[in-house]
């Protein structure tokens, strides 16, 4: 029982951190270009993940990385963090946080769709039903509730938010064949990608931001979204005897996120956001629970 309590507390800590990142993204992008936010957040994340490796005694596993694994990390690192976060931050730069965050949450359905050609898997009945319900929620959010006479506030932003789900799903599919401990693999991916991110940032927006206040947000994103939250979640999944019970806690995150967006970003949360997010989460619950059963 004590072990399950620890697992729940660790998972709730991760959920709480993930619930704040949409707010952190939006506030940071007031002062930084998307590539600048990614560059500084990647540096902080690399330091955070390195500290976690030392604290957990996994440094020898990192040093034993084979050349083949290094090449894998380069490819995966270019997908995440580089391309994934560039696209995601560009979406947040164009859309209200209350719209970008739920749209990004549909990555589980994108993963199911891409698993058909890439992994030879089949869609279950609940994948289809859950997906239809969830993407109905996407339509509600994208049209801001005007579902029969749609006028998109920013169609490019919507496409970028949905495009980020493709990149995230591709990253997960590629990571499925990585035999290394998750923390070691994630650090290696960031180590390979961060120099590329810094170079692209230097050649485009420039490494030095116009307003240094954005660096506080980048540090928060790098330490918590890209670092500690992952470690907390991984710890919870290793301690628990019921991965499904712990996994269901993630459904709290998008709703908590709306609270932070309202309080800290100051966005008026539209009724269409609640309806659309409710449909997305309902679709996820149906897919994850009924498909598994």
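Q: What amino acid sequence fits the structure above?
A:
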């Amino acid at each position: 029982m004590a072990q399950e309590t620890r697992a729940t507390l660790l998972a709730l800590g991760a959920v709480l951190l993930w619930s704040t990142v949409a707010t952190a993204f939006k506030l940071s992008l007031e002062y930084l270009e998307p590539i600048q936010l990614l560059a500084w957040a990647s540096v902080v994340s690399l330091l955070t993940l390195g500290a976690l490796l030392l604290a957990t005694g996994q440094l020898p596993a990192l040093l034993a990385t084979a050349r083949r694994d290094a090449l894998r990390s380069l490819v995966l690192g270019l997908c995440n963090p580089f391309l994934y976060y560039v696209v995601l931050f560009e979406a947040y730069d164009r859309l209200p946080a209350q719209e970008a965050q739920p749209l990004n949450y549909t990555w589980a359905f994108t993963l199911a769709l891409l698993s058909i050609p890439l992994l030879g898997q089949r869609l279950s009945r609940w994948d289809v039903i859950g997906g239809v319900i969830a993407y109905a929620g996407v339509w509600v959010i994208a049209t801001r509730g005007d579902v029969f006479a749609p006028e998109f506030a920013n169609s490019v932003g919507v496409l970028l938010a949905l495009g980020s789900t493709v990149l995230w799903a591709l990253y997960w599919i590629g990571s499925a064949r990585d035999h290394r401990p998750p923390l070691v693999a994630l650090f290696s991916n960031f180590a390979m990608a961060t120099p590329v991110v810094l170079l692209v940032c230097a050649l485009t927006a420039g490494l030095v931001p116009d307003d240094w206040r954005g660096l506080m947000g980048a540090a928060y994103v790098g330490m918590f979204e890209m670092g500690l939250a992952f470690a907390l979640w991984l710890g919870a999944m290793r301690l628990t005897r019921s991965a499904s019970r712990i996994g269901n806690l993630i459904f709290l995150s998008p709703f908590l996120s709306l609270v932070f967006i309202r309080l800290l970003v100051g966005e008026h949360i539209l009724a269409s956001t609640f309806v659309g997010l409710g449909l997305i989460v309902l679709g996820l619950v149906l897919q994850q629970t009924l498909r598994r059963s």
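Q: And what stands out in the fold?
A: The radius of gyration is 19 Å.
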